[in-house]
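Worked problem 6 (solution included).
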Amino acid sequence: MNTYKFIAIALLIGNVSFGQTLKDAVQKTENERFSEAASDFKKLIALEPANGCNYFYYGENFYERGELDSAIMMWNKAVVVDALTALSYVGQGKALWMKGDQVGGKAQFTKALTMTKNKNPEIMRAIAETYIVAPNKSLDEAIILLESAIKLDARNEDAHLLMGDALLEKTPTNGSPAIKSYNKVLEINPKSPRGIVRTAILYQRAQNYELANEKYKEAQTIDPTYAPAYRLNAELNMFFGQSTKAIENWKKYLALNNSTESRYRYATAMFNGKQFCEVIPEIEELQKDGFNNFYMERMLTFSYTDCSTDPESAKKGLAASDRFFGIAPKDKVLPVDYKYKGLLLSKAGNDSLAIIELEKASSLDPEAAKELASDIGRMYMKMKKYDKVIAIYTFKMSVSKLTPEEHFNMGRAYYFGPKNFVLADSSFARVIAISPTYTPAYLWRGRASYQQDLKNEKWLAKPYYEKVLELVKAEERAVGPNKNMVMESAKYMGDYYVSSTAKDLAKAKEAWTIVRDLDPADKQAKAFFDEHK
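Solution. The predicted structure is:
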């Protein structure tokens, strides 16, 4: 959706009282009161079904609320019911232009300009706005038209607003040209909330929170009913992590425009601000009111994934994901949709299905492949598919760095899978290089080294088992996994001091005493002490 001002219509309407009603409907659209405006347009069309202006601006209402197909239908209908009004041809041209037919669209724009002898600034502004807001922009043509419109009507706010918009689109990293046009609006009308909000947007683009916030507040003070000032202020707050202030502004916005479209905008903004737990009830309430689309199902899927880890949330998230895939057009499905379905399946305990979805996402998007390598590797590790673990982490190493956990898992994958104890030892060594006090890495280096020296000819594992005993404090030896690590390490060291060339009975007794203290029934410790009383 865009935030551009709809074109003023005073010169296009002959009937004053009727024109004022249409002007009110247009202003409601501008104020993002889309449902109220739509109701007004329906009444206007019922009253004067042959007036092309009604259909054109009804199309603008649909476009602003993000319903392009309905907008195109209304723009096309304008010329069907009213072939004598230039604005009807602007509508038909806009419909063609938005569908990608720039040649056909421009032909209709030319017809509208010819009908008005290139002397109607309203028609020029309407065409220029299309060139600015459409995906296939033509900014230079928009600027030329607006320059002509300003010559004909120098004090029209809309022309200067649109000129600023065009210049900002043309040089998005340089707001200086645009600010001159927006300041011209404020020269014409110092209390124009639209002009003030445009300057706030410029400050926001420059990441100047204080000045942008100040300008939004100024616009709200001048016109407390100008809803976009609250919405944009809320989005600014959210972008800068001011979620409490953002919610305050959204509530003020919804107080003015408590429609389903407004609540949908609110939910979307909360989602973009990563307020995932807050998004869920908003969307579910909208769905209860009969308002739904595949974007909402996507937001629910993502939000349930990121908001909670409980199985019930995973179940609800998967239901939303299934609904999304059931209604989303194929060309709107993104790699990230498969990713989140996979993450939810994993949370639900179904890693085998989760990997299918994650690998689908990876195959469609190189960036997703990098991002998801960690999750996929972790799942393969749980499933003991060690060759897959090695493959995925080897890929990740080619594009980025592994975390200590990933090096650790890769080491165990080498250990249990191909039983490549040299590469396993190298992986555990990388863990230690990153986290020198991570005890399990020393234990596994000890195991990998022992597998390379089963007859203890070199006692390769000795420095690693020794380090385990050094790192685990005496009072922590019996705690959790420490007990097994310490017992394994102490048995190795006890054997070392009995069987190696560095025989030392006193140190051997120290090691076997550790084992006996942790497990008085241990048969190996009992055998040692029976022999060395």
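Discussion: The radius of gyration is 34 Å.
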